[in-house]
């Protein structure tokens, strides 16, 4: 695996870097690389843990635990879930993105905001809403339905952004070459959305693997639910760890699959100058079905949670709002989310800066480490950290340090995304100009790039904070005694089917996520100049 | 024979009038340039011809078939009009060969032969066939775009500022290639540009657009020599504009009495001379100069072509006139020299 | 504009960072009293803790989890375990911790509050409540004559697709451990295999009962109190449900003992012992009687909720809680593909 190739590779690359670092201006690259390498090393811990446990378990026990019917069932469940959810999600989000960005759909801006809004509702609150409304909903059908509704914004956002970025002259060219509007869409537009679709699908696919709460409620077994079952039955026993190993393999498989589908090339916009804003296609009579599609999506993805929560709140009245409980969980969640957001952003900063400023082979490897760890399910990272702290570093066991470490690992890619884009927008010439004016390299970076990247920093922090607010499994398994977040509190109440008392926590999570979701939306529009 | 007829085409965006009753006839096989400053409506006009925009009124007839107007609107993909846009608009996800072959039927047996032919026609090396658009230079991209548009043998080719993103040297070479290829294939072409030199050298008909109106339409020579108004005169090149009084075929102005076209009304008018109509003669010190003269105020050295700023003091005016005159050759006067000014050819009286 | 936007953002970020670390440190250093690893229902744990604190002034911090999760966790934590008290829903988890020698013997006066059959003979832990296995069935679909005579009957192909359970829960695993203790490994393994074929898995006993009520399955093997709890609230999830007690010393009549114990590693043994004494005494057992948990009280002379059938009438099999083997059960269930 890549872990073995890594040290040799990095050693020689580091040597080259050190030779290159003789010049004064190279010094920050070296130090930043060392820090980024450290973060990468830490991010390899869960994978290393799986390997270590597998060795400890021994091949015989391991194979007995891996090659058994239950794992087969889970594999089939996982494959079916991905197989049905991804195409549906892609179709829905591309259709919505096209309608809101490129047609004269009435209220397009509002619909586009509403298409992102489901992100403010945690996935397990989506399924809570659905089983409250349709108690019999379960299994694959239920899982696919709720997954599509909970996760389609992850695809909608990049696809809509890419649509805005496309040069409309290309579509004109296709039309002038005799293609009708449908052919233009499928032969000229869709291929240009490939990167956005691949990236978004990967994100959704990984969420399907990692999500726990959603599938427990909808009664659909996946690896994540099975690992938690094992954890609850035998703590970090070999069976749980072996399931985690299979789950990690599934994640890596998805990553490889996406890389293959994406291909090597990038579709940079060719040519210079700003693209003419694209014309919006007139829908004509199609406006009715178009509006119906948007309205139906909103009704299912926002309306259902809204109606259910309102209903439970109405039934519960004022007595479910115990301010000491709800308020306490709210405060703890906010603190964890903000602190975790800042820590993850700080951890991601060296790599983000390097990957823009000094792209190279070593950087790509380090960057891959940063991204891969975020693709791991919370349950796997938590399991690794529980075992490592309880067996090796007991002082860190059940501490905030470990919980934050888990958050950093889980949300490192989120922090990278915002940072990278905004650092890329700060030209390196500014750093050089600052150094020419007598600043040291670090001062130069701080006074130019870091200033310009500030909006990206805010976006990254917000994205991570959003993730932490809705995080369930790692928080359940790692949090120090006495820590109750909105998510864990909501979870323990719904486990006792006390849906009424759980409602305030769900509402607070949604309220907390709304501004962050809006920020995300605004950021994605600003990034494409609108 | 008229191939393309535009009749009273108008287009407004809200209160802004983009095009105001544009009418012109374009002959088959000709090369027409639509030139105008930015915001003049030239690109809108092109997009209406291509079918990407719908005119508010007026009609568009190509080869006897109405494309727009009289309740008809043929969509872009059924017009058979090729287009090459500013930055090529190549499909970023396809190779050069696939870009060129985009409009060709997928299963056509001679597809690859056609692509090779087209590449040769636009002078693209065959090793380029497998490249992606972002691996090409700007000029190569435009060649691919041209080949792609030519593949379908369009009746009409629209060129939307295809050279504007290129460096000067490359621009001239590519313009010649395009002109040659279009002539060879007998394709009627319309070039939209804001660069008057490009328009004048490329086209056999030039339409000048300003603020949505067609100001003048004619051969490059006629437009350059006999512009209709001040703006057109200066837009199409350096112009020397002088107040004059016209009487019996001559104009009295700062440069003395100049020959003008016959049959003009007597009275005050503006005359225009192009710099190349004027010669400066350096007089030996103290010598007497026949005819108009001035003193060199400044010289802007530009290699082969120098601009000489000449100050003409006149007894009948308080303010001197300044003329900027292009000088070619070795005899460039120095600042402070006294120069005689002679005019060749007739002066053009602006009809406004 | 000398103080730029980004400057203020980073200032704000740092302020937030310090504030939040401050807050978390404060949270961590706050006096948390005794730490209870509470695998009991959260509401019961909270009710006990709050009443105990009110009466004694000793703070109680609950950590929630499940029986076996905590038991294995405590074993791994060993001497460093932050827990002072361990409360479970079932006995196997207690046996596991006891087997690792991690329990402090329960104070003699506390032991004296609970009859011998509700605690292990070694006195390392103590029963704090009890619950009976039942077959909760849809009374609109099943009449009494069609009910299974024994839980073992549910392995019969005629029951395929008709019943439910929550195999990942400690409750059901305790029932399996009783089966193992009563009938042996072979019988248990084959019953579990048949179960895998026949049953529908739900997460949690309440969810399983809800499914019976909604007509999704005809019956479910759960504990008795879910039904009474729901009846006492809205009854919305149990209006079509009736309970069938297997009785007759059937494995399905198993009464599971919820345990409590003080950890040998505890730094607050005195308060921990007080807590255990309190919940097995009048105060704690009274909460079982008057509260909404509907678990059976186990204290000497302590009365259970009046809505419940008397524990003595249930003809439950005699199982020594010390013999319940949890690790074996997990293995057997993993092998059967239930986990």
Task: Give short descriptive properties of this protein.
heterotrimer, A: 530 residues, mainly alpha, MetI-like fold, globular, C: 339 residues, alpha/beta, D-Maltodextrin-Binding Protein, domain 2, 12 helices, disordered N terminus
Judged by helices, strands and strand pairing, the structural class of chain B is: alpha+beta
Which stretches of chain B are low in confidence, meaning pLDDT under 50 for 5 or more residues running? Answer: none
> Could you tell me the mean pLDDT of chain B?
87
CATH topology of the largest domain in chain A: MetI-like fold
Determine the CATH superfamily of the largest domain in chain A.
Answer: MetI-like
Shape of chain B: elongated
Rg result of chain A? 24 Å
What would you call the structural class of chain A?
mainly alpha
Distance between the termini of chain A: 43 Å
Strand proportion of chain A, as a percent range, falls in under 5%
Order of helices and strands of chain A: HHHHHHHHHHHHHHHHHHHHHHHHHH
> Could you tell me the radius of gyration of chain B in angstroms?
25 Å
Shape-level CATH architecture of the largest domain in chain A: Orthogonal Bundle
Q: Would you tell me which CATH topology of the largest domain in chain B applies?
A: Rossmann fold
Number of strands of chain B: 21
The tally of domains of chain A stands at 2
The total count of strands of chain A amounts to 0
Short structural description:
The complex is a heterotrimer of chains A (530), B (352) and C (339). Chain A is an all-alpha fold and 530 residues long.
Can you put this structure into words, describing what you see?
The complex is a heterotrimer of chains A (530), B (352) and C (339). With 530 residues, chain A is mainly α. Chain A has helices spanning 2-20, 27-43, 45-57, 59-66, 69-102, 108-116, 123-133, 139-165, 168-176, 181-189, 194-210, 213-217, 223-234, 238-262, 287-316, 323-357, 361-374, 378-391, 400-424, 428-436, 441-447, 449-452, 454-469, 473-478, 486-495, 499-527. The radius of gyration of chain A is 24 Å and the shape is globular. Helices cover 21% and strands 37% of the residues of chain B. In chain B, strand 1 (2-13) and strand 2 (16-27) form a beta hairpin. Chain B has helices spanning 42-50, 96-100, 111-121, 138-150, 168-185, 196-202, 220-225, 230-235, and strands spanning 2-13, 16-27, 31-35, 57-62, 65-69, 72-73, 81-84, 156-160, 188-193, 205-210, 213-218, 240-247, 250-253, 256-259, 267-273, 278-282, 293-300, 305-312, 321-328, 338-343, 348-349. Chain B folds into three domains: 2-234, 3-Layer(aba) Sandwich (Rossmann fold), CATH 3.40.50.300; 238-273; 275-347, OB fold (Dihydrolipoamide Acetyltransferase, E2P) (Beta Barrel), CATH 2.40.50. Chain C has two domains: 34-130 and 255-309, 3-Layer(aba) Sandwich (D-Maltodextrin-Binding Protein, domain 2); 131-252 and 327-335, D-Maltodextrin-Binding Protein, domain 2 (3-Layer(aba) Sandwich), CATH 3.40.190.10. Chain C is built from twelve helices and ten strands. Chain C has helices spanning 5-29, 42-56, 67-77, 91-99, 108-111, 170-183, 185-198, 205-213, 225-232, 269-280, 282-290, 326-335; strands spanning 34-38, 60-64, 85-87, 103-104, 126-138, 163-165, 199-201, 219-223, 241-244, 255-263. In chain C, helix 6 (170-183) crosses helix 12 (326-335). Chain C is globular, with a radius of gyration of 22 Å. Chain C starts with a helix and ends with a helix. Chains in contact: A-B, A-C.
């Amino acid at each position: 695996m890549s872990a073995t190739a890594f040290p040799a590779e990095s050693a020689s690359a580091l040597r080259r870097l050190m030779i290159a670092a003789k010049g004064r201006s190279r010094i920050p690259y070296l130090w930043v690389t060392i820090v980024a390498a450290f973060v990468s090393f830490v991010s390899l811990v869960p994978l290393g843990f799986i390997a270590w446990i597998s060795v400890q378990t021994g091949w015989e026990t391991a194979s007995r635990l891996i090659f058994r019917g239950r794992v087969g069932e889970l594999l089939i469940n996982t494959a079916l879930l991905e197989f049905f959810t991804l195409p549906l999600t892609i179709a829905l989000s591309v259709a919505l993105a096209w309608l809101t960005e490129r047609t004269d759909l009435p209220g397009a801006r509002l619909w586009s905001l509403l298409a992102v809004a489901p992100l403010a509702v945690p996935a397990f609150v989506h399924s809570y809403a659905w089983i409250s409304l349709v108690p019999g909903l379960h299994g694959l059908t239920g899982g696919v339905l709720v997954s599509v509704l909970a996760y389609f914004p992850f695809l909608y956002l990049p696809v809509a952004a890419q649509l805005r970025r496309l040069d409309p002259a290309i579509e004109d060219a296709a039309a002038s070459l005799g293609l009708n509007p449908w052919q233009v869409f499928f032969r000229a537009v869709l291929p240009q959305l490939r990167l956005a679709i691949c990236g978004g699908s990967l994100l959704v696919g990984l969420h399907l693997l990692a999500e726990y709460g959603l599938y427990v409620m909808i009664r659909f077994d996946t690896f994540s639910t099975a690992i938690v079952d094992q954890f609850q039955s035998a703590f970090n026993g070999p069976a749980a760890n072996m399931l985690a190993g299979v789950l990690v393999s599934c994640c890596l498989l998805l990553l490889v699959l996406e890389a293959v589908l994406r291909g090597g090339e990038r579709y940079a916009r060719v040519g210079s100058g700003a693209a003419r804003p694209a014309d919006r296609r007139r829908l004509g009579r199609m406006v009715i079905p178009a509006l119906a599609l948007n309205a139906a999506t909103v009704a299912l993805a926002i309306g259902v949670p809204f109606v259910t929560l309102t209903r439970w709140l109405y039934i519960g009245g004022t007595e479910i709002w115990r301010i000491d409980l709800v308020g306490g969980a709210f405060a703890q969640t906010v603190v964890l989310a903000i602190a975790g957001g800042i820590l993850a952003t700080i951890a991601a900063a060296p790599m983000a800066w390097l990957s823009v400023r000094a792209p190279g082979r070593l950087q790509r490897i380090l960057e891959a480490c940063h991204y891969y760890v975020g693709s791991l399910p919370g349950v796997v990272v938590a399991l690794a950290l529980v075992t490592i702290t309880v067996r090796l570093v007991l002082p860190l066991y059940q501490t905030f340090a470990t919980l934050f470490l888990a958050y950093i690992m889980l949300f490192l890619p989120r922090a990278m995304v915002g940072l990278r884009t905004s650092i890329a927008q700060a030209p390196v010439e500014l750093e050089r100009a600052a150094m020419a004016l007598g600043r040291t390299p670090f001062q130069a970076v701080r006074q130019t790039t870091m200033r310009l990247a500030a909006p990206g920093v805010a976006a990254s922090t917000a994205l991570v904070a959003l993730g932490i607010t809705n995080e369930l499994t790692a928080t359940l398994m790692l949090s120090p005694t006495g820590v109750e977040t909105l998510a864990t509190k909501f979870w323990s109440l719904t486990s006792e089917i006390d849906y009424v008392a759980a409602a305030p926590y769900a509402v607070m999570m949604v309220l907390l996520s709304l501004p962050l979701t809006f920020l995300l939306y605004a950021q994605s529009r600003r990034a494409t100049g609108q | 024979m008229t191939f393309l007829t535009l009749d009273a085409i108008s287009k407004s965006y809200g209160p802004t009038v983009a095009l105001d009753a544009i009418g012109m006839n374009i002959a088959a096989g000709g090369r027409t340039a639509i030139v105008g400053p930015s915001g003049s409506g030239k690109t809108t006009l092109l997009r209406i011809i291509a079918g990407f925009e719908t005119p508010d009124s007026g009609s568009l007839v190509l080869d006897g078939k109405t494309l727009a107007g009289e309740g008809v609107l043929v969509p872009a993909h059924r017009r058979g009009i090729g287009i090459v846009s500013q930055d090529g608009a190549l499909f970023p996800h396809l190779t050069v060969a696939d870009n060129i072959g985009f409009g060709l039927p997928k299963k056509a047996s001679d597809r690859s032969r056609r692509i090779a032919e087209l590449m040769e026609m636009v002078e693209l090396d065959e090793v380029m066939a497998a490249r992606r658009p972002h691996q090409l230079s700007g000029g190569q991209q435009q060649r691919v775009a041209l080949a792609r548009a030519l593949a379908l043998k369009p009746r009409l080719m629209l060129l939307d500022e295809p050279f504007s993103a290129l460096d000067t040297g490359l621009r001239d070479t590519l313009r010649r290639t395009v002109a040659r290829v279009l002539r060879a294939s007998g394709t009627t072409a319309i070039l939209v540009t804001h660069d008057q030199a490009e328009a004048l050298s490329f086209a056999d008909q030039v339409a000048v657009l300003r603020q949505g109106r067609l100001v003048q339409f004619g051969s490059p020579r006629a437009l350059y020599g006999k512009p209709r108004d001040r703006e057109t005169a200066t837009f199409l090149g350096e112009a020397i504009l002088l107040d004059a009084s016209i009487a019996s075929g001559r104009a009295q102005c700062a440069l003395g009495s100049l020959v003008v076209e016959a049959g003009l009304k007597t009275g005050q008018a503006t005359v225009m001379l192009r710099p190349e109509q004027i010669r400066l003669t350096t007089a030996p010190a103290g010598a007497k100069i026949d005819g108009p003269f001035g003193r060199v105020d400044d010289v802007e050295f530009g290699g082969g072509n120098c601009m000489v700023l000449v100050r003409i003091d006149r007894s009948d005016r308080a303010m001197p006139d300044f003329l900027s005159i292009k000088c070619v050759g070795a005899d460039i006067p120095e600042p402070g020299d006294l120069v005689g000014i002679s005019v060749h050819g007739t002066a053009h009286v602006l009809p406004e | 504009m000398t103080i730029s936007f980004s400057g203020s953002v980073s200032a704000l970020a740092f302020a937030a960072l310090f504030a939040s670390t401050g807050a978390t440190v404060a949270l961590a250093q706050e006096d948390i009293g005794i730490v209870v690893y509470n695998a009991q229902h959260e509401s019961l744990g909270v009710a006990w803790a709050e009443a105990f604190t009110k009466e004694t002034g000793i703070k109680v911090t609950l950590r929630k989890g499940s029986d076996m999760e905590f038991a294995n966790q405590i074993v791994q934590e060993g001497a460093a375990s932050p827990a002072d008290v361990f409360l479970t829903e079932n006995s196997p988890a207690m046996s596991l911790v006891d087997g690792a020698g991690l329990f402090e013997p329960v104070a003699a006066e506390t032991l004296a509050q609970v009859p011998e059959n509700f605690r292990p003979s070694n006195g390392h832990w103590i029963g704090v409540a009890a619950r009976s296995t039942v077959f909760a069935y849809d009374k609109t679909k099943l009449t009494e004559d069609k009910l299974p005579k024994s839980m073992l009957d549910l392995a019969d192909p005629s029951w395929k697709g008709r019943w439910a359970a929550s195999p990942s829960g400690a409750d059901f695993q305790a029932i399996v451990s009783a089966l193992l203790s009563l009938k042996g490994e072979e019988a248990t393994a084959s019953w579990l295999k048949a179960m895998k074929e026949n049953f529908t898995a739900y997460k949690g006993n309440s969810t399983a009962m809800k499914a019976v009520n909604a007509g999704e399955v005809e019956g479910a093997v759960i504990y008795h109190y879910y039904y009474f709890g729901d009846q006492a609230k809205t009854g919305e999830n149990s209006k079509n449900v009736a309970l069938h007690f297997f009785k007759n010393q059937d494995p399905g009549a198993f009464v599971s003992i919820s345990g409590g114990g003080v950890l040998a590693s505890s730094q607050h043994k005195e308060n921990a012992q007080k807590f255990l004494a309190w919940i097995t005494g009048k105060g704690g057992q009274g909460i079982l009687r008057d509260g909404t948990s509907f678990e059976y009280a186990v204290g000497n002379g302590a009365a259970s909720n009046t809505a419940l059938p008397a524990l003595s009438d249930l003809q439950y099999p005699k199982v020594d809680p010390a013999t319940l083997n949890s690790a074996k059960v997990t293995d057997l269930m993993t092998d059967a593909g239930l986990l």
